[in-house]
Amino acid sequence: MALSGVSTICLSGMESFAAIPKGSRKIKAGNNMVILFQGDSITDGNRGRNADLNHIMGHGYAFSIAGRLGADFPEKKMIFYNRGISGNKVNDLAKRWQTDTLDLKPDVLSILVGINDAASVVFQREPVISVEKYEELYQSLLDQTLLKFPNVLFVLCEPFILKVGKVKDNWDSFSADIEKRQAIVRKLSLKYNAVYVGFQDVFNKACEKAPAVYWMWDGVHPTVPGHELMAREWMKQVDSRIRF
Amino acid sequence: MALSGVSTICLSGMESFAAIPKGSRKIKAGNNMVILFQGDSITDGNRGRNADLNHIMGHGYAFSIAGRLGADFPEKKMIFYNRGISGNKVNDLAKRWQTDTLDLKPDVLSILVGINDAASVVFQREPVISVEKYEELYQSLLDQTLLKFPNVLFVLCEPFILKVGKVKDNWDSFSADIEKRQAIVRKLSLKYNAVYVGFQDVFNKACEKAPAVYWMWDGVHPTVPGHELMAREWMKQVDSRIRF
């Protein structure tokens, strides 16, 4: 991954937040940098739950990203954690934030959450996490993290859907809900000067080349090529903010 | 993946084999091309055993390759199968060759097997698969496949080790044995005009950048960055033989 040459971008309308360093947020990758992936099943990828090094990153975008960065920069000895758990909503992340995030001391924290929150509204599954609750809890997670690690770089990943399966069957309510959560993630990205990874647009564009089901077999979970698109977009966006 | 521009390579000393087409073996990737990965735990990658599309490729080089090709060439609708099974030796592959290979009608068949065969000799685990038996059975698998699919492209992957863990503890016997199996895979690659993927050299060179344990945590199983190196080498070698 070459240096991107992108200098500081001043985001107009960015709300002030005491703990965010002013100016450049392009960070230098030091040795033993910790990159942590948090989220639901899309991040989980059936990762191993023990120390068995065969399976710790799951099969998904987190595996692909860890492999690429680890292969390109072995001298950096980057440390990758996957703490995605299938079925999680933002309130589930909140419950395990101390052990599964703060205790791991992330330098880069990538979060992808929201699809189960949207489903809780669409299918009225308790506990229902409304859009408002989602924003409140999400922001609380970021605040807790910044309080302990003022220099953490957040990578906020947009939740996404495609018109397949149960998502298709409930398209109007699903798309209306997820769009609101996407707007929240965009808003928080600006507020916290985070890297924003806009997956929805990536998948929408991919659907010009192959049907939605090719990229996301049930409208929610990416296929193997779908995860590859995610890994590429994540790398592209993060590359503009980290100097490896 | 760009066209490589590599034209037919005439391998001197290649033994004749009736079913192998003479001349160019650079094949054109048609629609619905079937790419099958066969092997042991390194290929398996804890892949799902059912039709659940979340986990079918496991976490390893097969996942990374399928993702890249699938993302780059969606219009080709390539079909990827992973049939690696943890602990398998070449005799285990033989037992399930019909259902797990021939029945899947591969256009490209990638095989990585040999480390458990070597371990059976080093640790005298029954059934011990000697080097001679390995060659005989391996060749028989290729012959069976060619008989049914004369145009199949074999991708023969070199088994490998690094000096870590139990491999290190038994280095002399392990390295002496695996070198013989590597020579067999090279020989069969020439004989069957296969793509040869020389992983050992890739890992040896990687060890100039980071310790062996960084790439292969127990001397046998690649780490996440190790799998990435495998995927890259596989793609590089196959790219010279398939026109996508």
What do these coordinates show?
Two copies of one chain form a homodimer. In chain A, 43% of the residues lie in helices and 11% in strands. The first copy, chain A, is an alpha/beta fold and 244 residues long. Chain A has a single domain (27-239), classed as 3-Layer(aba) Sandwich (Rossmann fold), CATH 3.40.50. Chain A has a five-stranded parallel sheet with strand order 3-2-4-5-6, with helices on both faces. A two-stranded parallel ribbon of chain A has the order 1-7. The model of chain A is unreliable at 1-24 (pLDDT under 50). At the A-B interface, helix 2 and helix 11 of A face helix 2 and helix 11 of B.
Provide key terms for this protein.
homodimer; 244 residues; alpha/beta; Rossmann fold; two-stranded parallel ribbon; 11 helices; 7 strands; disordered N terminus
Condensed summary:
Two copies of one chain form a homodimer. Chain A is built from eleven helices and seven strands.
Assign an overall shape of chain A. Answer: globular
What share of residues are in beta strands of chain A?
5-15%
Parts with pLDDT < 50 across at least 5 consecutive residues of chain A: 1-24
Largest interface: A-B, 38 and 38 residues
CA-atom Rg of chain A in angstroms: 17 Å
Main sheet summary of chain A = 5 strands, parallel
Span from first to last CA of chain A?
Answer: 8 Å
The overall pLDDT average of chain A reads 90
Summed up, the domain count of chain A is 1
CATH class of chain A: Alpha Beta
Give me the CATH fold name of chain A: Rossmann fold
SSE class of chain A? alpha/beta
Instruction: Tell me the total number of β-strands of chain A.
Output: 7
Q: Within the largest sheet of chain A, what's the order of strands?
A: 3-2-4-5-6
Helix content of chain A: 40-55%
> From the 3D coordinates, which CATH architecture of chain A would you assign?
3-Layer(aba) Sandwich
CATH superfamily of chain A: SGNH hydrolase
